């Protein structure tokens, strides 16, 4: 047969049918399924969220820079795609209150992807262009195995690398968009 069959577009229903032991995302009508994060990945994500929570996840003027919502694994519904970054952050001036439902339809101001050998290429080639398309102004790629942080800023329609921190990084660093505080990278890699 000369004609090829068209692949069925995945839907929200396909996502809902997945077990809780995996993470499902819809990109360009395709369903992508990855296992739940391994301990080094989960540790890094938890440590990052923990360092950002107290100073930023509060109203501005309440003891710290404040002004952000910092959320673990938010489900983002953006332009027909469904993405689940490891962490997402919204400036409260853009998102005065959290949505009542499970999904966010407003793109975050910051997204953090903790990459692994299994997800690095997917995060870089499939998800980053969607974040750029949706105007996510800052993006972090964290690699717990290489113990590195790449900080990106949206410049027009693509991301420009602002800073990379790794083995030779100082004990404490400052990284956009949270440069108001120092972050302790070593805490992200604890085993």
Description of the structure:
The protein has 191 residues and is α+β, with helices and mostly antiparallel strands. It has one domain (39-189): tt1808, chain A (Alpha-Beta Complex), CATH 3.90.1570. Helices cover 19% and strands 32% of the residues. It contains three helices and 13 strands, in the order αββαββββββαβββββ. It has helices spanning 12-16, 39-56, 120-133; strands at residues 22-27, 30-35, 68-72, 75-78, 81-83, 87-91, 103-104, 110-114, 138-143, 148-155, 158-165, 172-173, 183-184. The strands form four sheets. A six-stranded mixed beta sheet has the order 3-6-8-9-10-11, sandwiched between helices. Strands 5-4-7 form a three-stranded mixed beta sheet, with no helix packed on it. It has a two-stranded antiparallel ribbon with strand order 1-2. The radius of gyration is 17 Å and the shape is globular. The termini are far apart. Residues 1-6 have low confidence and may be disordered.
